[in-house]
Amino acid sequence: MSTGTLWVVIALISAVTFLIKGAGPAAMGDRQLPRRLSGVVALLAPPLLAALVVTQALADGPALRIGADTAGVAVAGLLLWRGVSILPAVLAAVVVTASLRAAGVG
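RE: above sequence
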């Protein structure tokens, strides 16, 4: 893919994203979501975030693979579960991932 084609694709994706994100507020106006729908939206956030984390931690192209990044995410998840704040958990994940990659684990 040429550089020009790549920039056209990026511009088109940006425009479509802008339109999709603007469609909800434009359709709703100043009205509030119904309570039942607000509850569903609130329940969707945790599983969507979990799905993103799992796919990023286990994906290696089209295949699933456990590696250094998976270990780093697991360490961060364990620390967060135990009540450690976000910054030390992320730093621990970085240290674990970098150490395993330096050791050649992948």
